[in-house]
## 1
Amino acid sequence: MTVVEEIPVGPDARVYAEGWQSWSPTTWSAAGDAAHRPEHAWQHLMRFRPGVDVAADAVQGEGLLVVDPGDGRPVRTLGALDATTTVPTLRATWRDGHVVVTRHRTDAGGGTDADGTVTTWTDPTPGAALAAFGDRLGAAAGARRSDAAPRVWCTWYRYFEDVTAADVLENLRALDAQDLPVDVVQVDDGWSLGTGEWTRPRPGFGSLPDVVAAIRDTGRRAGIWLAPFVVGVGSDVARTHPDWLVGPAGHNWGQDLAGLDLTHPGVRGYLTDVLAGLRGLGIDYAKLDFLYAGAVPGRRHDDVTPVAAYRSGLALVREVLGEDAYLLGCGAPILPSVGLVDAMRVSPDTFHEGGEDGSQGLRGRMSLTARAWQHGRLWTTDPDCLVARPSFALRREWAEVVLAAPGLRSFSDRVAELDDWGRACVRRLLTEVVS
């Protein structure tokens, strides 16, 4: 632990702490607020930073803390403007009228210089501080910015892993019949056998090439969901190539997960073949999910940091899919992804399977609101899909959040199940621009 600064503050002081990845809690906190911590080991792996302890008595940020003294004094920013090899872990603790910021070692396996570099400066307001950090990091990392956010129809929140080619084709026809201005039709999880089996489409889905061709025939972009940096430990890839695995990456799809070694020649060849095959079908929009797995701690073929390994893998995806491909990161390390993806999910999923009625609440609202400053500076933000069908009890509350958020305009309903309110809400989402 190294003390970075001791900042005088008033009783109304707040600290902004950037989470490690898309699904990590990110918000402003005041003295006495409960720290966001994982309840289970798998949550640490999948929602926080693997290999780094989560503080119980401090506000913890991965690469960025902003301290607002709350009494009119300048706002202090402490952040990493180079996240290509390391990202420092920063903690803020209230102590005797000060916020004490410390830097903690984050050597989670591989490489050197694990502490990273922290740059500090002041701005007049919290909004100006976050904007300045975004502008500076975006410029340094070559952020990919776009004037127009894609308008997307996604299969996930209606069909989940049971989606079929017929479902996609039905909704493709309905989009035209309803004259809904959608640019991208994205087939989410469920088209393949599962993580680690990307070369083997799920038999119950149908023909992916036919679906892609049909989407492109309407003049829209064909999108696909992938989790390219993670495999299930029971998958053919994991069993056949145990030397490709780095370390634990959580649990999903009914099995434990492991991160792939993105520096291993075999892994890079495997990813190249899979991605080139998808691009060959005409897919040029990819939602890249569970990307945090590429930066889990562990030994790798090359002696590089987990962050450097992650970026090498993401750069490979960009190279194979092409500069003109649109890449959306999800479950992705935030700062290390800048310059390599076009858009970034800035919150956890709205709900999981079983929460279609709204019983799981609005899980993403806190972080997507806090991260609005990233839009247009680091990438196009993705607030997640609007769900507007009558069976989603929180649809009006969620619509208020999504409609007000900048970034991607996406929805995930069976078009035929929308009522008048739902159709009007979707049309508003697709036609209004939020900056």
## 2
Amino acid sequence: MTTAFITLGLFDILDILLVGFLLYQVYMLIKGTVAINIFVGLSLFYLMWLLVRALNMELLSSILGQFIGVGVIALIIVFQQEIRRFLLLLGSKYNVSQKFTLDNWFSFDDRGIREKEIKSITSACEHMSKTKTGALIVIAKSTDLQSYAETGQIIKARVSKNLLESVFFKNAPLHDGAVILANNRLLAARCILPVTDNTNIPGSLGLRHRAAIGMTQATDSHVITVSEETGNISYVMGGNIKVRITTAELRTFLEGDFSGFIV
């Protein structure tokens, strides 16, 4: 009578699937960043320690083991930005406290982007594209962007074509930085955004585009950019960017249809 060498139960399969999903999420989080090289280096270091132990090289094994012993602390220090980004995204996605506020229950007019604001944004971007006026427009989703808004000038005004064009006018005092739109209001201008550390971004994309990508990696917001050099309009979401879009495509994205979004 023979017995199976390995037995797999339902929870074993579930355990494997969860670990695989977790590793995939970690890979997606650090893909294209400097952290992926650090992760590979640490993995090679760990494999070398296992090889040294298998060969019974006691002295080298004990030295390497000292580094492995503080591995968790080292990982937290090395990947602190990636861990912070992951927790921010997790917290913004499952933020129960914000979902059950009185504002969310009784404020219906300010949920999402309304038709009037979409028209104002697309018209302003079309004009700024023609005049090659640089712009960086952040559209808040579920993440609270108050901390980013406080890096600039709080405005809290109704979104309009003239207001957006006035803010980004080259000689205007608030043109340098980003504007943040939340609840159909222009919440703040001249805001500072986090810049992505993704090394795979083409050199043709400047600091404005890198800030847009970094903002969508750190939060669930969407960002519109208008290039000051070329006048091209770009749309950024989830760390992915689609460049040289038309105003018709921009309007479609603002209405929530991302079927044509190409990574």
## 3
Amino acid sequence: MPPLFIHVRFFDVIDIFLVAVLLYQFYRLIKGTVAINIFIGIFSLYLIWLIVKAFRMELLSSILSQFISVGMIALIVVFQQELRRFLIVIGTRYFKSKKFSFDKMFTLNPRAVSISVIDSIIHACENMAKTKTGALIVVSNMAELRTYTHTGDMINADVSSRLIENLFFKNSPLHDGAAIIIGNKVRAARCILPLSNNPNIPANFGLRHRAALGMSEETDTLVIIISEETGNISYAKDGKLIDDISTKELIRQLKITLL
């Protein structure tokens, strides 16, 4: 006599939970992008293949099975950018700790950041917002970001409000592009950042906001934007763009990122 109930082990519950977490995180990455439509299309094709196979429609089933057989390779090609972001999420947000990290294990001189660095960034942002000076500042205390610093001009100078303001002064040769601050150093300026492909970005946001969002999607950084049209201070983090923030909120985000 067959059992009345399916035997469920404790590890089966953990297995289902972990799969649900992975699917949810992947959904968060592709939500609001063109990739969600591609994912729906692939899933619909898979359902059609199951239906065709169940009705034993041999010709159509054999054609669709050719697509399904190379499904993993197709997924890697189609979702290359999203999978890269997913791996970055795993490597930075879940395995990064202020007390324990690979960055501290293999670094002889860790980047100790004082509160004066945050004060300098805040002071510069407030002054540039008043004068409506456009700026794009990437802030990090963990990653070296060599891929992005090498696109600009290396500086390696101590953070100061005067330096930041001079970098984005309209007649400065370094004002076009992003400045990258790592720890207590302005590492580079005039850097090129990746643009976000998110179709839901409001039309009133320009290339600075799109570049800031793209950088936050690909790295675990805080990207500060100052609009030259409105003077509003915004920031991008974890693939989200927050517009027109207060100085208090900016201080809070800088402390989370740097301290």
